[in-house]
Amino acid sequence: MEEGEIPKAIGHIVQLSVEASACSSCGTCEVVCATVHEGATSPSLRRIWLDRFPFEARYITLTCQQCDSPECYFACPLKDEALCIDIKTGARYINGDNCTGCRSCIEACPFDPPRINFDTDRNIAIKCDLCKDRPNGPACVEFCTTKCLILTEKEQEL
Amino acid sequence: MSELYGWMGKILRADLTNRTLTTEDTEKYVPKYIGGIGIAHRIAWDEIPKGVGAFDKENKLILMTGPLTGTPSPTSGRAELGGVAAQSLPEQYAHSGIGGWFPAELKYAGFDGIIIQGQASSPCYLWVHDGEAEIKDASDLWGLGTYDTQKKLRQKHGNYVRSICIGPAGENKSRIAVLLTDTENAFGQGGFGGIAGHKNLKAICVSGSKKIKIAHPEELLKVRSDMPWKPMENPYLHCDRLESLIDFLDFPSNSAWHKRSCGHACPRTCFLELVNVPRKTRPGIHSGQLGCLGPLTIEWENEKGHLGRDIWPLWSQSVEGGFEASELLNQYGLNEWEILAGMVPWLVMGNRMGVITEELFGGPINPSTAEWWISFLHMLAYREGFGDLLAEGVTRTINKLGKEKYGETIYTGTRLCGLGEDRSLQVDTPINLQEAWGYCEHHSGRGIHSFRAFPVWLLRALLWMTESRDPHDNQHVKDNPSWLAEFEKDPYFGEIGPAISFWNQIRGQLKSSLTVCDFAFPIPDALHPLQSGGNSNAEARLFSAVTGIDTTQEELDKAGLRLQTLYRAIQIRNYDRTRELEWNEVVPFFRRPDGTTGAVIDEEKFSVMADNFYELHGWDKTTGWPTRYCLEDLDLKDIADELEALGKLP
């Protein structure tokens, strides 16, 4: 898929600012994400993660921003086979069957920390796919305890 | 090994004396003992013989998670700790639970639990990561508070590590010292922090990326969706006692507060987190959580739905002062419940009655000032002056000073009790609020829970009798209005009262073995506590979905009874527990008038209630001991054989 042909994603997962809502720090987003995708939980299996700073009362949720210009996609040597674009949702996602674990996508991610996780057991990269095949949409949004996670086209509000 | 779902499959054993680390298969214990406290009970039966004291090298800290821990099972981010408890009087095997994010991370680090034994020759901490473990030098951590220890461990090993640790109170072998994680979660009751200090164990730090496999992921998420705690549209709409505290008090203008979950995967947000609150006496600001009793550092209350300054006015101070005291309680690693519900009320009431003098205490007793708390907590944590005795806990302190004068003196100061509009009742209360086994009152209609009216405290009396500690680690009694209406018709002789306590007790064992939270489970949806209905079978659905072992609630409840009976067997073999012993330990507290109508226990009738309670377990009414039939029916024949050899089968 050439750059001009890449559809925008329907949105990306955003944590609302603390003025509008509040992350309860429960981490449900992490475990339901891994459960939906992998049938297991682990820090190495989640596509969304929660940075907890309990002594500062700060809890920050990070995940893929589904960039309009997806550097991860461009960097993938197996574009459209390993790192793919979903036609229906525009989600930038990884087909684990074809990923070789080269980590090019992780290195290309413009965010710090990169929003792509790596499963060392299977030697593949994993990332948020907006739960593109799930009827109820992103599981992290559905199960968020305080509804501080939303799917939106807006910039992250943190 | 067959493929395990839920369990990680390995238990770490750390021998601090020999500095050796070994692993054992979890399958040795599961599914029979489920996990958590169930595995701890079995290990305690096998490895802690009669005669082992809390501060003996032979005592063990048995820290266990369960098959649900670290999964999306609601409230499952918990662990249990078993061992001979320093706070219990007499010292005996007991347990304590913890939330936070440590338990799930321990499983991600590759282990279902850790058995800590022996005693290190110098301060150490345990570093457990991705299936490996090391006993590391803790000389640069020794002396630090719990918050500072955790921060330092993050500096050493990364922001994602989770740790439990002791503060100065634990290092000084206080019987009311805790093991704490994050800002407010602790293995609180039991004095296990003091035992860790005796073992020279400063902390356990864990991190990892191992996988917890779930047998039926979609079913698990469906069960979670079926639970009554729905995601909120806005957390501020939720209102409870902690929020009313914020509304009631002058909250610092540049500070903030939020609702937080106290544990992994919890949808309930019970805890209150205060942000950037200025300290009253020392420089700087502090952020952290306030749990169940934390707000009592601000003022002592009677929990009638309002704050207590006009109800049982023992102290009252600003948010800044109270929160600073809460911070120090946690930094020093002290037991909030013992101090806030038992010790400081005893000091204040005793002082007002002229029993606990300034000479004895070593200064004025005035918890309405932040300066007093700072000084008091310091002397308690470091065992300075009178703090050396107080560090033994209130019960031992009173026993040492003399129970008649220092325990039984009646407090005649103002306290409005009663129910509804009539709050004028002045019920006599001894200054000593300690209930039994070395622990202070908890949900028993007196002290801080004076608002619990007769007859509900009878349900708690049964649970206190058959415990080795305050039973509210996992037995906050759950009921529903129809059960209570039936119970109130005939509290002593009706069959539903013992059934409510029995149901809560065996489900308590399940909660602490699966693991889930005591404030969320069990769900009393059924028409009767011993029947199924609604979400009352949630534990079995969660267990089946995670482990793939298709289990009915009836089968799981039988496993809960197995764990309770094994716990009972430890009490009988190691501590000569009998019905008479526990009756004499617990019933005297209920002879004092309750806080609502002045009701006292009718011992003759309560004896019938206790008969029925024992019979529900399959225990002999006279001795309180499990019968051989009961033990064998629960697949505990080896326990029956050993008890019989000791002459302790009825």
Can you describe what's shown?
Chain A has one domain: Alpha-Beta Plaits. Chain A has four helices and nine strands, in the order βαβββαββαββαβ. Chain A has helices at 28-38, 71-75, 104-108, 139-143, and strands at residues 12-15, 40-41, 48-53, 58-63, 83-85, 92-94, 117-119, 124-126, 149-152. Chain A has 158 residues and is α+β, with helices and mostly antiparallel strands. The mean pLDDT of chain A is 92. Chain A is globular, with a radius of gyration of 15 Å. In chain A, strand 3 and strand 4 (58-63) form a beta hairpin. The termini of chain A are far apart. Chain B has 650 residues and is α+β, with helices and mostly antiparallel strands. Among the domains of chain B are: 10-207, Aldehyde Ferredoxin Oxidoreductase,  A, domain 1 (4-Layer Sandwich), CATH 3.60.9; 453-645, Aldehyde Ferredoxin Oxidoreductase Protein, subunit A, domain 3, CATH 1.10.599.10. Chain B contains 23 helices and 20 strands. In chain B, the strands form six sheets. In chain B, strands 2-1-6-3-4-5 form a six-stranded mixed β-sheet, with helices on both faces. A four-stranded mixed β-sheet of chain B has the order 8-7-12-9. Chain B has a three-stranded antiparallel β-sheet with strand order 14-15-16. In chain B, helix 1 (36-47) runs parallel beside helix 19 (553-575), helix 6 packs antiparallel against helix 18 and helix 18 packs across helix 19. Residues 233-239 and 302-309 of chain B have low confidence and may be disordered. Classes of the chains: A alpha+beta (158), B alpha+beta (650). Strand 2 (40-41) of chain A pairs antiparallel with strand 13 (212-213) of chain B, so a sheet runs across the interface.
